[in-house]
Amino acid sequence: MHRRFKTAQSLNGSGIFAAAVVAGSILLTLLLAHAAWVQGDRHRLERHVDRLLEATRLVATQSTRALNDSLRLTTARCSADDLTELRVLAFQSQHIRDIGRVEDGRVLCTAAWGVLPHPPMLPEPTRHATAYRFWSVGSTLVDRRISTDMVAAGDAILFVAPDWFGDIARLDPRTSSIVTTRDRRHVMRAWGSEATILPGAREEPWHDLGSARVQLACDDDYDLCVMARTRGSGLADASLQSVLGLCLLGGLAGMGINSMMGASRRRRASLEARLARVIRTDRLHMVYQPLRRLSDRGLVGFEALVRWTTSSGDDVPPEVFVRMAEQTGLGRALARQVVAKAFAEMAPTLQRDSGLYLGINLTAEDLLDMRFHDYLDAQAALHGIAAASIVLEITERSTAMRDDLVRNIHLLRAKGYRFYIDDFGTGYSSLDYLAALPLDAVKIDKLFTQAAGSDSVVGQIFEPMCTMAHALRVGIVVEGVETEQQAEHVCRLAPQAIGQGWLLGRPVAVQDLPTT
Fold first, then answer.
1. 115 DSSP assignment
2. Model pLDDT for residues 411-425, shown as the tens digit of each residue
3. Which residues contact 510 (CB under 8 A, 6 or more apart)?
4. Is the dihedral of CA 403, 404, 410, 416 positive or negative?
5. What are phi and psi of 82, to 5 degrees?
6. pLDDT number for residue 397
7. What is the mean pLDDT of the segment spanning 273-281?
8. What DSSP character marks residue 210?
């Protein structure tokens, strides 16, 4: 009897444990499903905000161009010729319905309505920004049945198409959106029942699994931001049948994990889409790190480094987005944008001091593309930069199509461009291959520089690398110089070496470049 009691006790314990496991599995499945649903809502909302910001930016660009073009007209204001030119400007802009003239706060004429017999008085602008005055959506004054936004500069005023955003802003009944200034004090457009609470809302952290999603994106060139909020996110908006279906899958936590992995892929896809848009709209920026002789710390040049700062102020590491650009077929566009920006920004410095050079990082694919050769020459000619002032840096790992690569380097070298092998020592090129390249210098990777002089295996390799560079009859550039001890040790082994690192100068914007 005692044994039967213990058996019953064991069975009861097993049942409780099994029930706890089932309950835990159900809760875990619901939690993972809710998290995956939230990530999907966040991705969808982010895409919605980006599309609405693109549409708003397009309107701002067209409005600015049309206003500037109308101000440059030399025709007599409100004359027949003037109205004709204004009509042409209006027709050329997809999102502009009318352009007119103002004087003393009154609208004198418009391209659509002609000269107004009774010029209406404009109300007080809802916003001022430098030379521009803005009126949020309201009656056009000419005809009270038409409501639109108005923008004025000088004696020109334009009327934005009432429905310039089309169906972009109407995502679903749960979502509210606004177009606002960066400080959120001026709301230009609003959609949805909860739009009035958006100016004070904040983006939730990525781990927030609450029932509301908020996304914000701002433009780098215009004082414009778009914010959107979705309520009832995740299981909060799910039907009872959906919740019951998930409960029936209790214990299958793997499905929830798989959903989270899908959300991670969507986030990466979103980052790739944003990178493509950033490259397409020329939103990347450049910084330049000084290079100096270690013997006397004299300035010899700068390396151009590309940077990506998102609209929310986050910096995406170059090793992430550069590799992503190469993997998604955007590498060539990125290389061209880097060349164009760096040449345009550094041209005055290089023209002022012909002894300085500018280093540009390239891939083997760039050098194998003859169209890139033409682009490089065209940009150098456009900005008045001598080929001898440009150093093209390729990694030792760039070994694809070696014979073609060597031949193309020879072609560019004949024009005056110089070549460095970057990250020397981290690749797998043979010595005879390196000897075949017409190099000016090798850049020893910071891994070896920072270990130089130590007893580690990496540190002991540094001196043979300098010997190898001498055997190749090329100069030496050492990366990652961060301490005086490192600089002194390198200088003893290679007195003519050039150094690069935080000890010698950090990457800075072009306006902060050192002059000595």
1. E
2. 999 999 999 988 887
3. 286, 288, 345, 346, 349
4. negative
5. -65, -45
6. 59
7. 83
8. S
Model pLDDT, residue 6: 43
Q: Specify which residues 160 forms β-bridges with.
A: 96
Three-state DSSP state, 250: coil
Look at 205 and 144; give whichever has higher pLDDT: 144
Q: Letter for the amino acid at 14?
A: S
First and final C-alpha spacing in the chain: 97
Q: Pick from 276, 385, 389: which is nearest to 337 by CA?
A: 276
Q: Which two tokens stand for residue 418?
A: 């110089």
Contact 392, 368 (CB under 8 A): no
Spatial distance between the Cα atoms of 56 and 190, rounded to a whole number of angstroms: 12
Q: Are 75 and 85 in contact (CB under 8 A)?
A: yes
Q: What is the CA radius of gyration of the chain?
A: 31
Tell if the pTM clears 0.90, that is, is over it. Answer: no
| Tokens coding 160 | 């934005």
d(Cα 200, Cα 184) in Å, to the nearest integer? 8
For the stretch 305-333, pLDDT in tens is 999 888 777 888 888 888 888 888 888 99
Question: For helices 253-280 and 318-327, what crossing angle results, to 10°?
Answer: 90
Residue 336: HSE in the Cβ half-sphere, 13 Å Cα cutoff: 15
Tens digit of each residue's pLDDT (9 = 90 or more) over 353-364: 989 999 999 988
Burial, 414: exposed, middle or buried (Cβ in 10 Å; 0-12, 13-18, 19+)?
Answer: exposed
421/437 Cα distance (integer angstroms) = 9
pLDDT, residue 135, reads 83
Which candidate, 445, 482, 483, 484, places its Cα nearest to that of 465? Answer: 445
CA distance 463 to 489: 10
CA–CA gap between residue 482 and residue 492 (Å, rounded): 16
Please give the Cα distance from 473 to 495 (Å, whole number). 14
Higher pLDDT, 10 or 132: 132
Question: Are 486 and 450 contacting, i.e. CB atoms less than 8 angstroms apart?
Answer: yes
Nearest one of 217, 130, 134 to 182, comparing CA atoms: 217
Q: CA–CA separation, 152 vs 154, rounded Å? A: 7
CA atoms within 13 A on the CB side of 330: 19
List beta partners, residue 290.
Answer: 302
Residue 7 burial by Cβ neighbours in a 10 Å radius (0-12, 13-18, 19+): exposed
Dihedral, CA of residue 497, residue 388, residue 323 and residue 219, to nearest 10: 120
How many C-beta atoms surround the C-beta of residue 64 within 10 A?
Answer: 16
Reported as a single tens digit per residue, the pLDDT across 472-486 is: 889 999 999 999 999
Average pLDDT value for the chain = 81
**Residue 238 CB-density burial (10 A; 0-12 exposed, 13-18 middle, 19+ buried):** middle
